[in-house]
Structures are given as C-alpha cells and as structure tokens.
Write a structure and sequence with these properties.
With 279 residues, the protein is mainly beta. The chain contains 1 helix and 13 strands. Helices cover 8% and strands 52% of the residues. It is globular and about 50 Å long. 28% of the residues are buried.
C-alpha cells in the first residue's frame, strides 16, 4: 500500500471526505438564514477578510474546509495529514460560535500508522465595534478542546480538556489588514501521572489586497511552554500565503499557505489548503 506523504493524499483521506460530506450538509441549513455580507461592510459593519493560519477577528457565518500536510525533516521524522472542517455561526456582528473537527492520519518514524478524529474545538468569539469608524476591532473569547480523540493512538485525548482564552486586535486601512492574537492555553481533567500544560502563544497576520480577487498574506505564529520542567525555545513559524475569490460575490474563496518552522522548529514544514463558503 502506498504510504501517505506530506505532499499527497491516500485512500484514508478519501474516506475522511466521505465522513465530512454529511457533516457539511447538516451545517449548511443551519447557517443559510444568515444575512449575506459584501466585501468589507454590511450596514456599516467593519469586516476583515479571513486569514489562513491566524483566526479572523470578525464573527462570521461560514463553513471552512482545510487540508494540512505536515512533515518533519529532522532525521526519519513523521508525516501527518489533517482534514479539518469548521462551522461558524454569527449571532450578531459582535458574537459568534464555531466548531472545528479534525481528522488526522499519521505515519511515525517507525512506520507505524494511526488515524482518527482529534479533539473537537468549540470557540466563542466576541468583537467590539466601538472603534470601527477608525478601522479598529478589539475582541476576545474562549476556546475549549473537547476530548474526542484517542490516548491509545496519541491523536488528541480521550479525557483531557484544553481551555484557551484569547484576546485579539485588528486594524484595517484601505487594502491593508493587520490582525494579532494572544492566546493562553491550559489543561484540566488530567490523570495523576500527567503533568500540567500551560502555553502562551501569539499570532500575527498581515494581509494586502493586490486585486479585488487576490490577496497576499504573511503570517507568524509563536508558542512557548510556561511549565518550569518544559520551558525551552519558542516554536515559531512563518507562513506566506495567497487567497483568491473565483466569483464576484466573494462568498466562496480559496487559499494556500506554506508554514515554515524557524529556530527550534526549523525542521518542520506544513502546507495548508483552504476553502471557505460565507453565508
């Protein structure tokens, strides 16, 4: 059987799409009643184009499908393919709720393979429009990692809950959009022999619209452990990317990003391909 690589699909990826299709069909009717938005504003509402690696500061109603291929070039390394589906519903211009479900296919250095659903993530996001006239959006929220994974397969967890509060700020002027996030994550419901996990992370995205249907991105994400026994160099990645809108109404968009590790993470690279449908 052909082994999965970081640049290819295999039979298990096709099987995962078979699972994703009915989920997508269930999500579409729930979001269909949302009001359509134009490119930047809806009744004076400040709206940001969604970055690829960084989360969007704007509450949206959308379905997003990602394919992520990760490779480690440090020795034998590992290969991991992830298919991720996200559904987000904006109750108002200021509040939204999102659910992200990942399907993971992994090949370890020993050639052992594992696949399964990872931890589902639920996120409540809020944004303040107080400074919208100045192109500034401030917000925050909370993400919860639900233990829907497998301890045996080392894909997610079957018992640990991850809590991640976050703050964000964004600025928009003409064709330029700047977004930054600060995230603090910790774990609860651990077993007696399991150490606590506490991490601090920062995300940054710079987007520039070079054409009404084409956007360029440069993103950066860095994360560091705050646990004394695990403190080391931060894991930092730089991700150049592109987004395009094939249709004039801009409800459908596609994007691709190359995530490159630096410093302690220099041996890891990822390719992200995304498709969005906004309602």
């Amino acid at each position: 059987m052909t082994k999965p690589t970081w640049i290819g699909f295999d039979l298990r990826v096709v099987q995962a799409f078979a699972w994703l299709l009915p989920v997508t069909l269930l999500l579409i009717p729930a979001a269909a009643g949302a009001q359509e938005r134009d490119d930047d504003h809806d009744e004076g509402h400040l709206h940001f184009s969604h970055p690829l690696v960084t989360e969007s500061p704007s509450p949206d109603t959308k379905i997003r499908l990602d394919y992520i291929a990760t490779n480690s070039s440090d020795g034998p390394g590992f290969h991991e393919n992830t298919i991720r589906i996200e559904g987000e519903y904006a109750f108002t211009h200021s509040v939204s709720l999102a659910m992200v479900t990942p399907f993971i296919f992994r090949t370890a250095p020993s050639d052992e393979r594992a696949s399964g659903i990872g931890d589902v993530e639920l996120s409540l996001k809020a944004a303040s429009l107080a400074y919208a006239e100045n192109g500034i959006l401030l917000g925050g929220g909370l993400s919860v990692g639900v233990p829907t994974g497998s301890d045996v397969k080392a894909i997610g967890s079957s018992h640990i809950v991850e809590l991640e509060p976050f703050l964000d700020a964004a600025y928009k002027r003409h064709e330029l959009e700047l977004v930054t996030f600060a995230r603090f994550s910790s774990t609860v419901h651990r077993r007696a022999n399991e150490e606590a996990e506490r991490n601090l992370a920062f995300d940054f995205s710079a987007l520039y619209r070079i054409h009404p249907r084409l956007e360029t991105l440069l993103e950066l994400t860095t994360e560091r452990s705050l646990v004394a026994s695990d403190v080391g160099a931060p894991q930092t990645f730089i991700a150049p990317g592109l987004k395009m809108y094939p249709f004039s109404n801009k409800q459908i968009m596609f994007g691709a990003s190359l995530e490159l590790g630096t410093g302690a993470a220099r041996h890891q690279q990822s390719i992200l391909v995304s498709g969005f449908y906004h309602f």
